[in-house]
């Protein structure tokens, strides 16, 4: 079943044509990835598709009633909303009644008036009618799996990674027909990316996404769309299949271009001879020559050479001597020592907020350790590529920005290239040199900053999530550069493919301040974690001092909260209802009156009731003990 179809769709940004008259359709159940170089129009295309769901578009046909959920690169939220308010800020009847239900509960906690109690009773009925309890159970399950708790926290106080996780949770709350994902893995830790992979594999929803994560592409996608040369190319298969078919396409285009060039030489020789006849046939021949001259010329991929002239490293590169760091009483880095050797390529893994970026700031001496010493070598020069791009003057042109780093630059082989030639090697067309930075996409800005950072000739590179916003082609070139780089490289990245290809050992952050070295790639580490026996925490029972209590004293128990009292009443009612239904079903079996299908249905329901009764009774007894 076709969910949406696109015909002759075009888009531009300013004077730049992004794509021109592209055509494709999205079928039910497909998992499609959209890739292409930064600035080719990927996010623009996703936005137009999402907008066409609610606003008719002449070039986009949408199946009536199509339910769509979108995960944006930068989730939009109100900083003053709590996590709970943000999660249930939807327009569906279910989310509205759940939002009202929770708001009423919060009010009853502080002001349990009869009016609010009556409103709460009405909301319980509405929750039943909307089947909202099942929805809330799904929400609770997803939040637990993503370790999202403390729902009263304000959205404005959260890290970028936590905001992305909350946006991801909202995505899976609804049973959408089509999921549109724009760079879904950005800012997420590896554990969450693995969880999302599993959810998408199990989901029956159709998926259309932009992503640079090549393991994600390989494991999820059934088709790949590529925007290139203002056109859309479609490949049936996952990432390895795409690489093979794309290579064949480019080879065929190169061969075709050679044939056209040969034909043009012959035709131009004919024109030079200046035939006197002006027949229709000769007129058509001249028109054909003009068409060949005005065609869009195929340009072979420019090999982006990132090699820069090497800065000499001293005998001592960098020593960390028992450094530690705490924030507001929370230990982020326990005392840690390490001596860096030339050519070391180290990946850093760990959950969001574990202190990975803090280590970078300590190494580059932007932060001072609470204890210990950071001792860099005399010739050690850092290049720090951060998660957030530096502020760039939006009015400065691309060429003007690069010339701020020099008119000519020396490459690793000793050759010198001008700033304009260097830009062309980094896939910036000469026609774009005068483009103000304010008109570049986020990925194009990141690519521009990456080039300039490397051209400052560092010999110790600190990459904090370098894969965010960079396209697959640029990442491949960056990987090749890092593999041949003689200096030290320290990388924080949740891109498993990137880490696997570049690093030779890891620092594993445990989230409690500990840092453990691991010799091997990410895949080696993941495999070792799977095969390792489960760790069982052994606690030595220590005798507790006995405090004499007066005779007849009873241990104080925490009283039930208002929510728990309401739950206790609901459980009593549910248990009575289930027991009554169980008696009715048992009567059916005792009379032996009914069809085979009725008996099978009753048997399944009896099994469900037994499970529910066991669960509800256990919870009821726990609450009854404190009532």
Q: Could you characterize the architecture of this molecule?
A:
There is one protein chain. The chain is α/β, with parallel strands linked by helices and 627 residues long. It has helices at residues 42-52, 83-87, 93-110, 114-129, 132-145, 160-173, 190-202, 214-220, 239-272, 280-293, 356-363, 398-403, 419-425, 442-454, 472-484, 496-502, 522-531, 562-591, 596-624; strands at 2-13, 16-27, 31-35, 60-62, 68-71, 178-182, 206-210, 223-228, 231-236, 318-327, 330-340, 345-349, 371-376, 382-385, 408-410, 416-418, 460-464, 488-492, 505-509, 515-519. The longest helix is centred in the middle third of the chain and has 34 residues, at 239-272. It contains 19 helices and 20 strands.
What is shown here, in short?
The chain has 627 residues and is α/β, with parallel strands linked by helices.
């Amino acid at each position: 079943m076709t969910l949406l179809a696109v015909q002759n769709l075009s888009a531009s940004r300013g004077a730049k044509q992004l794509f021109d008259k592209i055509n494709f359709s999205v079928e039910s159940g497909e998992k499609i990835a959209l890739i292409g170089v930064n600035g080719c129009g990927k996010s623009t295309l996703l936005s137009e598709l999402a907008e066409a769901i609610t606003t008719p578009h002449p070039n986009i046909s949408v199946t009536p009633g199509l339910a769509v959920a979108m995960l944006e690169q930068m989730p939009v939220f109100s900083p003053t909303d709590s996590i709970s308010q943000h999660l249930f800020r939807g327009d569906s009847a279910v989310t509205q009644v759940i939002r009202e239900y929770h708001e009423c509960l919060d009010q009853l906690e502080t002001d349990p008036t009869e009016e609010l109690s009556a409103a709460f009773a009405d909301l319980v009925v509405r929750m039943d009618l909307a089947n909202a309890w099942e929805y809330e159970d799904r929400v609770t399950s997803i939040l637990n799996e993503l370790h999202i708790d403390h729902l009263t926290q304000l959205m404005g106080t959260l890290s970028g990674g936590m905001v992305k996780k909350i946006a991801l949770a909202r995505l899976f709350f609804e049973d959408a027909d089509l999921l549109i994902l724009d760079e879904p893995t950005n800012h997420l830790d590896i554990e969450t990316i693995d969880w999302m992979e599993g959810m998408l594999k199990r989901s029956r929803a159709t998926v259309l996404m932009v992503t640079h994560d090549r393991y994600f592409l390989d494991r999820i996608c059934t088709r790949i769309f590529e925007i290139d040369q203002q056109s859309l190319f479609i490949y049936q298969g996952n990432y390895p299949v795409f690489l093979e078919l794309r290579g064949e396409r480019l080879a065929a285009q190169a061969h075709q271009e050679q044939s056209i060039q040969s034909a043009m030489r012959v035709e131009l020789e004919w024109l030079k001879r200046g035939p006197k006849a002006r027949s229709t046939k000769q007129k058509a021949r001249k028109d054909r020559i003009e068409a060949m001259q005005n065609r869009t010329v195929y340009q072979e991929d420019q090999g982006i050479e990132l090699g820069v002239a090497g800065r000499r490293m001293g005998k001592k590169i960098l020593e960390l001597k028992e450094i530690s760091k705490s924030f507001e009483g929370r230990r982020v880095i326990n005392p840690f020592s390490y001596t860096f050797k030339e050519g070391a390529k180290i990946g850093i893994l760990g959950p969001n907020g574990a202190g990975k970026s803090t280590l970078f700031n300590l190494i580059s001496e932007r932060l001072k350790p609470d204890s210990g010493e950071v001792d860099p070598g005399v010739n050690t020069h850092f290049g720090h590529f951060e998660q957030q791009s530096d502020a760039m003057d939006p009015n400065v042109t691309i060429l003007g920005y690069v010339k701020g780093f020099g008119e000519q630059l020396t490459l690793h082989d000793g050759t010198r290239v001008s700033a304009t030639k260097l830009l062309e090697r980094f896939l910036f067309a000469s026609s774009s040199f005068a483009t103000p930075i304010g008109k570049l996409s986020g990925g194009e800005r990141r690519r521009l900053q990456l080039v300039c950072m490397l051209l400052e000739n560092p010999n110790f590179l600190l990459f904090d999530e370098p894969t965010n916003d960079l396209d697959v082609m640029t990442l491949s070139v960056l990987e090749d550069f890092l593999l041949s780089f003689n200096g030290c490289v320290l990388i924080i990245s949740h891109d498993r493919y990137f880490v696997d290809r570049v690093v030779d050992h890891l620092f594993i952050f445990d989230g409690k301040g500990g840092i453990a070295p691991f010799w091997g790639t990410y895949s080696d580490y993941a495999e070792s974690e799977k095969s390792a026996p489960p760790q069982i925490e052994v606690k030595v029972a220590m005798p507790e001092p006995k405090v004499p209590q007066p005779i007849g004293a009873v241990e104080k128990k925490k009283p039930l909260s208002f929510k728990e009292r309401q739950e206790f009443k609901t459980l009593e009612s549910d248990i009575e209802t289930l027991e009554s239904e169980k008696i009715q079903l048992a009567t059916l079996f005792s009379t032996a009156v009914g069809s085979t299908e009725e008996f099978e249905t009753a048997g399944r329901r009896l099994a469900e009731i037994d499970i529910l009764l066991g669960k509800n009774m256990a919870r009821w007894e726990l609450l009854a003990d404190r009532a």
